[in-house]
Design brief:
The complex is a heterodimer of chains A (556) and B (109). Chain A is mostly helical and 556 residues long. Chain A has helices at 2-16, 22-26, 36-59, 63-68, 75-86, 89-102, 104-114, 116-131, 137-140, 146-180, 184-230, 237-247, 264-278, 282-285, 294-325, 349-398, 405-429, 435-459, 465-485, 487-491, 507-524, 528-546. Chain B is mostly helical and 109 residues long. Chain B has one domain (5-108). Chain B has four helices and no strands. Chain B has helices at residues 5-13, 15-48, 50-54, 65-108. The chains are: A mainly alpha (556), B mainly alpha (109). At the A-B interface, helix 7, helix 8, helix 12, helix 13 and helix 15 of A face helix 1, helix 2, helix 3 and helix 4 of B.
C-alpha cells in the first residue's frame, strides 16, 4: 500500500507538473558537463522569443491586450497554446520513464490525463467564453457580491498559482542542472528573469506565442525521436512490443496493468482530481478569453485535444522503444552496468533515447525544448497570478472598479515582478522540498476551491454569495487539510508514523464537500440579496447560452 | 449594446431559444455520459480485470486489448470533440444568430 502511494505520487507529478517529476530522482544526480548543442539551440529559442516579446510589447497597450491578447488569438493558435500548457517537458520525460519501468501503467495514465479535454469542451468552454472577460473570477462574481466573491476566487487562484509555481521552479532548477550542467541558483535566476521579461513587456500576446512555439517544437522533437526509433523496428508496433517483452523484466506481463491503479478509490480520486482540477487551473481557464468568440473557443479546445492525443501516443512509442534501445546500451548506465542506475536518473530515459537514435543534435534539441517548456509554463502561471492581483484584487476589490486603465496596467507589472521574485526566492528556500505534495495540493485546490463554485455559478440558479463563499473556502481548506494529513506531509515531512487521512489524493472527498457546502449555504440563504442574485441568473443564463453581451475582440 | 434586460427577455420568450437549449443540452448530456461511461468503464477494467487489459487480441499477436481499447478511447474522444464542435459551430450558432437578429428586429419595431 505504501509503495503504491509513493508510486502514485510520483506519477501524479509526472502528469501534472512539467518538471516536478524530475525532482525526486534528480536530487542525487551529479551535475552534467555543459551541453553545448543544447545551450546553442536554447539561445536561438530565447532570442526568437525575446524578439516576439519586443513586437508584442508594442501591441500591448490596454489591460485587455495584457490579460487576453485583446481577444485576437485564433482558434488554432490558442489550441496549440493550450496543448503547450498541457504537454509538459516532463510528460515527455516522466511518462516515457514510467512506460520504460512499468509498461502499460504509463499508457493508462496518459488516457486518464487525456479524458479531461472532452469534458472541458462539453461542460465549460462555451459558457466560460460567453461570460468571462479576463479571469474566471469574472464569472464566479458575475451576479454575486463583487468584493467578497472576487476576493475568494482570487485567493483560490493565487494559492494554486503559488504552489504550482514553486513546484515548477524547484523542478526547473534541478532539471536544468541536469540537462545543461548549470548551477541550481543560476538556473532559477535565468528562468525567473526571462519569465518577468516575457510577461511584463509582452503580456498575453508574448506568453501565448512562447507557448505556441514551444508546443510546436515539442511535438516536432517527439515525432522525430519516435520516427527514428521506429525505424529500428521496421515501423511495426508488433515487432516493437515483441522485442520489448523479450527484454523487459516484466516479460509477458509488460502490457498488463500493474499495481498503480489496483486500488479503485485512489484511482477514482486521482482521475477526478485530474479531470476537474484541469477545469480549475487559472492559467488554463484564462486561455478561453484570448479568442474572439465561443466558436473560436470551441475550435481551440478541439485542436488542443487533437494535438494532445497525438503527442500522448507518441510518448507510448518512445517509452516502448527505449525499453529495447536504451536498456541494451551500457553507455547510458553508470559504470556501464546494464540494468544498473541510469546516468542522470530514471527520468533521463527519453533523453538517452534521443541520443541513441538522433545523436547529440537531437539530444541538444530535446534538452532545449525542455528548458523552453519550463519557461512557457512558468510565464503562463505568472500571468494568471498577475491577473488575479491586478484585475480582481486591485481594480475590482480595492479600487471598486474605479482604477484607470494605466493604473491597472502598472499594477500588472508590479504584480508580475513580485511573483517572479517570490518564485525565485521560494525556489531557493525550498530546493529540497517534496515537490509531490506541492503539486497534489495545487491540483486538489483547483478541483475543490475553484471548480465547484465556478461550475455552480454557471449552471445553478440557486447559488448565492453566501453559498459561493462557503463552497470556495471549505473546498480550499479541506483540500489543504487532507493533503497535510495524508502520508505526503504527515509522514514524509512531519515524520509521524501513521497518516491520518489514508489517501494521497484529496479530490474525491474535498470536491463533494465544496459542492455540498455551496448547496446547503445557498439553500439556507433567504436574505433579500440572495433573491436578486437568483433572479440575475436568468439574464446570465441567456448570455451564457447565446453570447449576447459577451466581451468582443480588441477592435471593440 | 443589446445587453439590457428587455433584450434578454425577448430572447428568453422566443420558443426557438427553448428549442436551442433543449437540443444542445440533449447533445451535451449524451456525449458527456458517453465519455464518462467509456472512461470509467476502461478504468474499472484496469482495476478489477487487469488480465483482460493485458490479453492478446488473437494468439501470436502482441496487440493487447488494453492498447487497442486505449487507442480507441483517444480516437473516439477526438471524434466526440469534433462532432460537438461541428454541431455547436454549425446548427446551434445559426439558431443563435437568428434569435439575436429577431430580438433586434423586435426592439426596433
Amino acid at each position: 500500500m505504501n509503495t503504491l502511494r509513493i508510486k502514485m505520487a510520483a506519477i501524479l507529478l509526472a502528469l501534472v507538473s512539467p518538471l516536478a517529476v524530475a525532482a525526486p530522482t534528480v536530487e542525487n544526480a551529479a551535475r552534467q558537463p555543459l551541453n553545448w548543442h543544447a545551450i546553442a539551440m536554447f539561445a536561438v529559442f530565447v532570442t526568437l522569443t525575446l524578439c516576439i516579446t519586443f513586437w508584442a510589447a508594442r501591441k500591448t497597450r490596454s489591460t485587455s491586450d495584457f490579460y487576453s491578447a485583446g481577444g485576437g488569438i485564433s482558434g488554432l493558435q490558442n489550441g496549440l497554446a493550450l496543448a503547450g500548457d498541457y504537454m509538459s517537458a516532463s510528460t515527455l520525460l516522466g511518462i516515457t520513464a514510467l512506460i520504460y519501468t512499468s509498461g502499460m501503467d504509463g499508457y493508462i495514465y496518459l488516457i486518464a490525463f487525456f479524458a479531461g479535454w472532452p469534458v472541458l469542451l462539453l461542460l465549460m468552454t462555451e459558457r466560460l467564453r460567453n461570460l468571462g472577460r479576463f479571469t474566471f473570477a469574472d464569472i464566479t462574481a458575475y451576479r454575486l457580491d463583487q468584493g467578497k466573491v472576487r476576493t475568494m476566487a482570487a485567493i483560490g487562484s493565487l494559492t494554486v498559482v503559488c504552489f504550482y509555481l514553486v513546484a515548477q521552479m524547484v523542478g526547473a532548477g534541478q532539471l536544468i542542472k541536469l540537462l545543461f550542467g548549470l548551477d541550481y541558483k543560476y538556473a532559477l535566476f535565468i528562468v525567473g528573469a526571462l519569465m518577468m521579461l516575457y510577461v511584463t513587456f509582452g503580456g498575453m500576446v508574448a506568453t501565448t506565442w512562447v507557448q505556441i512555439i514551444k508546443a510546436f517544437l515539442l511535438m516536432l522533437g517527439g515525432t522525430l525521436a519516435a520516427v527514428l526509433a521506429m525505424s529500428h523496428f521496421d515501423f511495426s508496433f508488433d515487432i516493437l512490443v515483441t522485442n520489448a517483452m523479450n527484454l523487459h523484466k516484466l516479460g509477458e506481463t509488460l502490457m498488463t496493468p500493474g499495481t498503480l491503479l489496483a486500488d479503485p478509490l485512489t484511482a477514482l480520486s486521482l482521475s477526478l482530481g485530474l479531470v476537474f482540477g484541469t477545469a480549475g487551473l487559472p492559467h488554463i481557464l484564462m486561455r478561453f478569453f484570448t479568442v474572439g468568440d465561443a466558436k473560436e473557443a470551441r475550435k481551440s479546445v478541439l485542436y488542443a485535444t487533437l494535438f494532445i492525443g497525438y503527442f500522448f501516443n507518441i510518448i507510448l512509442l518512445l517509452g516502448l522503444a527505449s525499453i529495447v534501445i536504451v536498456s541494451q546500451n551500457p553507455d547510458f548506465f553508470e559504470g556501464g552496468v546494464l540494468g544498473g542506475k541510469l546516468i542522470g536518473g530514471g527520468n533521463m530515459v527519453a533523453m538517452h533515447l534521443a541520443q541513441a537514435v538522433g545523436g547529440n543534435l537531437l539530444l541538444g534539441f530535446l534538452s532545449a525544448v525542455t528548458f523552453a517548456t519550463i519557461l512557457a509554463v512558468v510565464s503562463g502561471l505568472a500571468l494568471a497570478g498577475a491577473s488575479a492581483i491586478a484585475h480582481d484584487l486591485y481594480a475590482r476589490v480595492i479600487k471598486k472598479g474605479k482604477a484607470s486603465e494605466a493604473q491597472e496596467l502598472r499594477m500588472t507589472k508590479f504584480a508580475t515582478l513580485a511573483l517572479g521574485l517570490v518564485a525565485i526566492g521560494l525556489g531557493i528556500v525550498f530546493e529540497n522540498i517534496n515537490v509531490a505534495f506541492m503539486v497534489a495540493l495545487a491540483f486538489g485546490i483547483a478541483a475543490s476551491a475553484n471548480f465547484p463554485v465556478l461550475f455552480l455559478s454557471m449552471f445553478w440558479r440557486g447559488l448565492t454569495t453566501r453559498g459561493a463563499l462557503a463552497g470556495g473556502y471549505i473546498g480550499l481548506f479541506s483540500a489543504m487539510s487532507f493533503v497535510i494529513l495524508s502520508k505526503l506531509v504527515w509522514v514524509d515531512v512531519f515524520h509521524f508514523s501513521e497518516a491520518i487521512f489514508p489517501y494521497t489524493q484529496p479530490a474525491l472527498f474535498s470536491m463533494p464537500l465544496a459542492f455540498l457546502a455551496a448547496y446547503v449555504f445557498s439553500k439556507l440563504d433567504v436574505s433579500a440579496r440572495s433573491h436578486s442574485e437568483r433572479e440575475a441568473f436568468d439574464d446570465q443564463y441567456i448570455r451564457g447560452q447565446t453570447g449576447v453581451g459577451a466581451s468582443v475582440a480588441a477592435a471593440h | 449594446m443589446p445587453s439590457s434586460s428587455p433584450f434578454y427577455a425577448r430572447i428568453r420568450n422566443n420558443p426557438r431559444f427553448t428549442e436551442l437549449v433543449a437540443r444542445r443540452n440533449r447533445l451535451t448530456f449524451g456525449l458527456f455520459t458517453t465519455v464518462l461511461i467509456l472512461f470509467y468503464g476502461y478504468m474499472s477494467l484496469v482495476s478489477f480485470w487487469p488480465e483482460l487489459i493485458g490479453r492478446r487480441l488473437y494468439p501470436g499477436s502482441n496487440l493487447t486489448v488494453g492498447i487497442c481499447g486505449g487507442l480507441f478511447l483517444f480516437v473516439f474522444f477526438c471524434l466526440i470533440a469534433g462532432y460537438y464542435v461541428y454541431r455547436a459551430n454549425g446548427d446551434f450558432d445559426r439558431i443563435t444568430r437568428d434569435l439575436v437578429a429577431q430580438a433586434q428586429a423586435e426592439e426596433l419595431a
